[in-house]
Design brief:
It is a single chain. This protein is of the alpha/beta class. 46% of the residues lie in helices and 10% in strands. The strands form 3 sheets. The chain has a 4-stranded mixed β-sheet with strand order 6-5-8-7. The chain has a two-stranded parallel ribbon with strand order 1-2. A two-stranded antiparallel sheet has the order 3-4. The model is unreliable at 1-16 (pLDDT under 50).
Length: 355
């Protein structure tokens, strides 16, 4: 029964899985890359030309913005007032959506944002594993790189122009550094974590979208586990940075972004120089998988006897932090801090290399 309910909510999951790191997190990643590219004026000029003058910080939100269009462009955001950019995104949407105005048999751009590799596997991405998809994020990043390098020609079936490729990369670099956009939990009928490629039956949490999370345990506020990682963890990271800077507020200033993210390199090589461009996305997915596993292992899961419906969301499991564990939110904030740092530097380094 549980397996049946999970399958029937797949389309709903597409609607829920909206903002990896939320608009604020994605914008931060783009802002970091913008700042880094000020020291590379030739690259910055190419990026600006392709983006018709908008910043990477603003471009990084577009791939989520268009999820609300449902086949019909809605020109209400600032970037939609740029005809060339808006038209490119509308063409991309028409070729990668099955909503009104589409051809009805297109791939769905919603699935380009994630992959669902089991956290109970060997923690390595493989396109043949359950949860992988020929159009998942690990496949779409090199596709966009191919468009920018000229190895994937224009026009192409996905209607990804060089402009669209930069827009998507600005967003996908954030997605692939969000643990629940790469790793997923699969449960058997007893609520035990299993590897779907080894178990007879399993049900997926769809990147945490099927889990109702109680951060503080019983009696505390409940929320979508995936949404928690998109929003609350980003807020925790920002609070941590603001505290270290001795300031207050809900967002970082340009100077705080420079001081914390731009003036110092993240741990490790920003672009993994010894990795081929075509293998970067696999490398990054494999890097975040252990964190996706840890994000689940710190919790206790309980299957609902009957799926719980809250608004337009349906949950099949509840989760709360293991008794005696240290602050989950503080740990998640540290993860996001590191992930956003890496994603911003990697975005800048990748664009420098392919443009």
């Amino acid at each position: 029964m549980l397996r049946h309910f999970v399958a029937t909510t797949l389309v709903l999951t597409f609607a829920l899985r909206v903002h990896a790191f939320g608009p604020q997190g994605h914008q931060l990643i783009g802002h970091i890359a913008d700042e880094l590219l000020t020291g590379k004026p030739a690259v910055a000029a190419k990026v600006s030309t392709l983006l018709h003058g908008i910043t990477l910080a603003d471009a990084a939100k577009i791939a989520d913005d268009i999820k609300t269009w449902d086949g019909h462009p809605t020109p209400h955001l600032p970037w939609t007032q740029i005809p060339a950019l808006c038209n490119d995104m509308a063409d991309f949407l028409a070729a990668n959506s099955n909503g009104p105005g589409s051809h009805g048999h297109n791939p769905d751009h919603h699935i380009y944002h994630y992959t669902d590799i089991s956290i109970n596997s060997d923690l390595k991405y493989d396109k043949h594993k359950t949860g992988a998809n020929k159009d998942d994020i690990v496949q779409m990043i090199p596709y966009c790189v191919g468009v920018l390098k000229g190895t994937i020609h224009q026009p192409n079936a996905k209607k990804i122009t060089r402009t669209v490729a930069v827009v998507l990369l600005a967003h996908y670099l954030g997605d692939i550094h969000q643990p629940l956009h790469v790793g997923a939990a699969y449960f058997d009928d007893h609520g035990m974590l299993v590897d779907p490629d080894m178990a007879d039956l399993s049900s997926a949490d769809k990147g945490g979208n099927m889990i109702q999370f109680q951060q503080g345990g019983q009696g505390h506020e409940k929320e979508n586990f995936h949404a928690y990682w998109d929003g609350e963890s980003v807020k925790a990271a920002i609070r941590k940075i603001k505290t270290a800077a001795g300031s207050t507020g809900a967002s970082l200033t340009a100077q705080e972004i420079r001081d914390h993210f731009v003036t110092k390199k993240p741990i490790g090589d920003p672009l993994d120089q010894h990795v081929a461009l075509s293998k970067l996305a696999v490398t990054w997915a494999n890097e975040i998988m252990p964190t996706a596993k840890a994000a689940h292992e710190k919790l206790k899961f309980t299957p609902f006897a009957t799926p719980v419906r809250v608004g337009n969301e349906t949950f099949f499991w509840s989760a709360e932090v293991m008794p005696g564990s240290s602050s989950y939110l503080e740990w998640a904030g540290e993860v996001v801090d590191t992930s956003i740092h890496k994603a911003g530097w990697r975005l800048a380094a990748l664009l420098e290399k392919v443009l």
